[in-house]
Automatic annotation (TrEMBL):
Cofactor annotation: Mg(2+)
Cellular component annotations (GO), alphabetically ordered: plasma membrane
The protein, known as: Diacylglycerol kinase
UniProt entry keywords in alphabetical sequence: ATP-binding, Kinase, Lipid biosynthesis, Lipid metabolism, Magnesium, Metal-binding, Nucleotide-binding, Phospholipid biosynthesis, Phospholipid metabolism, Transferase
Keyword flag Lipid metabolism: yes
GO MF entries: ATP binding; ATP-dependent diacylglycerol kinase activity; metal ion binding
InterPro entries, A to Z: ATP-NAD_kinase_N, Diacylglycerol/lipid_kinase, Diacylglycerol_kinase_cat_dom, Lipid_Phosphate_FormReg, NAD/diacylglycerol_kinase_sf, YegS/DAGK_C
Species: Saccharopolyspora flava
Length: 299
């Protein structure tokens, strides 16, 4: 009996998917499973489609889009029997990058079809934000969350350049805040520029903010950038592209199963590039909470 797959497509992803690309994606999946295709033109339509797929006990939920679409799919698939297949077609694609999924949509669909056909699955940890939802990549607050928020509001330029421009603009209004980080190992009270809690390494379209994070070890990697003047932060930022920022004396790294972050800072947290809630927040790692149909190798 063929496996049942629901394919949810955001046709505006990647600046607009051509009919040929959509046809190729569908053809690859239909070669190995029974496919029901849903076109979702907005977040509400996507959320409804992915939740229905899981409620209907689809074997696989395949989503075409960027990290926002993947984030909605994670909410539906977390701790369910439905495996998630990601076909990246956005500007960041950080979850796909973590899973070693090809960045070109048709190649990603081919890889997903191979994984579905062979029964290949990976079981990924997820972050659970108390009272909010799940995330698969990184939760951040402070300067980087403000950059994320600005980049989300911008319509130009596309891709990594948009994030870089947002970063430069946020530097002009740089503010630090009091931050408390509580883990099972102790408490850190400090003034900080930002905090990132990583289930995976990357955010912002390929920035390894938590360069040593492993997505199936049952632990978060936490990166805290302390209080630094604008000039010093400008020296740290280029190191983000290589992960060498963790060597800077102003940067503290932790590893924990659960993290509570707070402090008198008014920070709004973002996770998977999506707004969550203002601090304080409690986040726990849920080992193996997401089943993913993807290539066995990942980086």
């Amino acid at each position: 009996m063929l496996m049942r797959c629901v394919l949810v497509i955001n046709p505006a992803a990647g600046g607009g998917l051509s009919a040929k690309v959509v046809g190729d994606l569908t053809d690859h999946l239909r070669a190995v499973c029974e496919v029901r295709t849903v076109i979702a033109t907005d977040a509400a339509g996507t959320e409804s489609a992915v939740r229905r797929a899981v409620a209907d006990r689809a074997d696989v939920l395949a989503v075409v889009g960027g990290d926002g679409v993947a984030h909605l799919a994670v909410q539906a698939c977390a701790e369910s029997a439905t495996a998630l297949a990601i076909i990246p077609a956005g500007s960041g694609n950080d979850l796909a990058r973590s899973l070693g999924i090809p960045r070109e949509p048709v190649a990603a669909a081919r890889a997903a079809a191979e994984a579905i056909s062979s029964g290949a699955r990976r079981h990924l940890d997820l972050g659970k934000v108390a009272g909010t939802g799940w995330f698969a990549t990184v939760l951040c607050a402070g300067f980087d969350a403000k950059v994320n928020a600005r980049a989300n509001r911008m319509r130009w330029p596309r891709g990594q350049r948009r994030y870089d421009l947002a970063l430069v603009r946020e530097l002009l209004g740089l503010r630090t805040g009091a931050l408390r980080v509580e883990t099972e190992h102790g408490v850190l009270d400090t003034r900080a520029t930002l905090i990132a809690i990583g289930n995976t390494r990357w955010y912002g379209g390929g920035i390894p903010i938590c360069p040593d994070a492993i997505d199936d070890d049952g632990l978060f990697d936490v990166t805290v950038v302390g209080e630094v003047p604008r000039r010093e932060l400008l020296r740290i930022l280029p190191r983000l592209r290589t992960g060498r920022h963790v060597d800077h004396p102003a940067v503290t790294t932790l590893r924990a199963k659960s993290v509570r972050i707070g402090g008198d800072n008014g920070w709004l947290a973002y996770a998977d590039g999506e707004p969550q809630a203002r601090l304080p927040l409690t986040i726990r790692c849920a080992p193996g909470a997401l089943s993913v149909a993807c290539p066995p190798s990942h980086g």
